[in-house]
Specification:
alpha+beta, about 20% helix, 8-stranded antiparallel β-sheet, about 475 residues
């Protein structure tokens, strides 16, 4: 079968290229669910609020991907760089902030995401609605010159208030100034609370909220917004850098998923350990789907990438003929396979895919007259390995599984080294830390994930796979 070109910004398989280089040294093992310490049970309201933030984080993780491990600020890769939970209004309920590089190739309803630059967003769960609210965002233009270089940090003041601080500075023979703007969550909104400017040179100048003040007044007012500062983006002499650890970016983001979901069910507390035979089948079935992104039999929005992944990995034959430069795959064949693997009843016409007569450059998959169509290419998707990190038997035929992937960027490696003889398939069953040293800069870990695995008549069926945990009721529904 000819292989398919997966261009960035068109389709997200395997978590939207979340993954291109890991650290060469061996990583710490992923914490297993059975090792999680006891925590207070969540109320239904708390679960719903966490799920609102989950929806936001999951949407960006799948929509934009995750930048590779050890990325620098100036790397030309799109995706999430960092995520963290911060209680910005000290009410005991965490808010979610994310820093990610948007892309003009990915169209999002939030326009600031559709630009080539970094965006910081802060989201809050809303107990009155079903959706989280965007409290604040900042866009950092990559093309900005030194006077508009931005540093971003959180400051916890002496009074315990959490402020977001945006700093601009210039220091050269022509001009020397520091300008900082502070934001806080007050009275139900995220608002600017202070703009402070200090210009140095032949004559010093001090301004607070655009009003000139004397030095002593300035110093006294600044004491209200000073405190423990945690940088997110640093900018020194016009060079921006991340201020957080980048050795395992996907793992750090995965910890936020875990913080938001890990107590949603008791599968690993109450489930049984699978037998060696069952575990072998689980690992084999999970490995066969290592190029798939999100799988959810309940959500038709996941069907398109599942189908494309099945075609890319050769799970279905090319039996639908050719049309112009498209290769065809009969819906009957695809539907049979997706039913067997994921218990999904497929209706191709209901997916709303573009027809091959009307080429859509935003998607690979097209559909018409009972046939799925994709354009051919000789380039294959990134190579992946998968480790099942824990599994629990929750019913006679259903297992709940945690896993983590590692990805090898073959195209990046080949372009950089001009070595087209390396065959990653020879290392399919070798941990990536044991791959040749020259490949390590092109390997990266994916976000730790969860899956529901069923053994139906001795065969593996996976109705769910993704970054987010499941509630007790969701798990039982499978």
């Amino acid at each position: 079968m000819k292989k398919l070109l997966l261009t960035a910004g068109i389709l997200c398989l395997a978590g939207c290229t979340e993954n291109e280089r890991p650290e060469a040294e061996e990583k710490q093992p992923v914490q297993k669910e059975s090792e999680i310490q006891e925590k207070p049970e969540l109320t239904e309201a708390e679960i719903k609020q966490k799920q609102q933030l989950l929806n936001v984080l999951e949407g960006v993780a799948y929509g934009f991907g995750v930048v590779p491990d050890r990325s620098s600020f100036s790397d030309s890769r799109y995706g999430l760089a960092h995520a963290e939970l911060v209680d910005v209004n000290q009410d005991g309920q965490d808010e979610l902030y994310m820093l990610f590089r948007g892309s003009p190739h990915h169209k999002d309803e939030l326009d600031h995401r559709n630009q080539d630059g970094y965006t910081l967003e802060i989201w809050q769960a809303n107990p009155e609605t079903k959706q989280a609210a965007l409290l604040h965002y900042d866009f950092i233009n990559l093309d900005s010159v030194a006077p508009t270089d931005m540093s971003i940090s959180f400051v916890t003041t002496g009074k315990g208030e959490v402020l977001l601080k945006n700093s601009y500075f210039q220091s050269d023979e022509q001009e020397n100034f520091d300008e900082s703007t502070y934001y806080a969550y007050r009275d139900g909104t995220f608002e600017q609370v202070l703009a402070a400017y200090h210009g140095a040179g032949e004559q010093e100048e001090y301004r607070l909220d655009d009003k000139k003040v004397d030095r002593e007044t300035f110093k006294q007012r600044m004491k209200d917004v000073e405190g423990e500062e945690v940088a997110i983006v640093k900018s020194e002499e016009g060079e921006k850098t991340f201020a957080f650890e980048t050795a395992d970016i996907s793992g750090n983001i995965g910890s936020v998923f875990s913080d938001l979901t890990e107590r949603f069910n008791t599968a690993f507390e109450n489930g049984k350990e699978p037998s060696e035979e069952e575990m072998a089948k689980i690992e084999e079935g999970m490995s066969g789907l290592k190029y798939s992104g999100k799988i959810d039999q309940r959500n038709p929005e996941t069907y398109e990438p599942i189908i494309t992944s099945m075609i890319v990995t050769g799970d279905v034959p090319q039996d639908g003929g050719n049309l112009d430069y498209f290769m065809g795959y009969k819906e009957e064949t695809v539907a049979k396979q997706i039913k067997a693997l994921h218990n999904i009843d497929l209706d191709g016409a209901a997916l709303g895919l573009p027809s091959p007569q009307k080429l859509d450059n935003t998607t690979l998959l097209h559909y018409g007259n009972g046939v799925f169509y994709v354009p051919p290419s000789d380039f294959h998707n990134q190579h992946a390995t998968r480790e099942v990190t824990a599994a629990a038997k929750v019913t006679d035929d259903t297992y709940f599984v945690t896993f983590r992937d590692a990805f090898f960027d073959l195209m990046g490696y080949t372009d950089a080294t001009e070595d087209d003889s390396f065959d990653p398939d020879k290392y399919e069953n070798v941990p990536v830390t044991g791959w040749p040293k020259e490949t390590q800069d092109y390997i990266s870990n994916g976000i730790p994930g969860y899956a529901v695995v069923k053994l139906v008549d001795g065969k593996v069926q996976i109705p769910y796979m993704g970054y987010r945990n499941l509630t007790e009721a969701e798990l039982k529904s499978f």
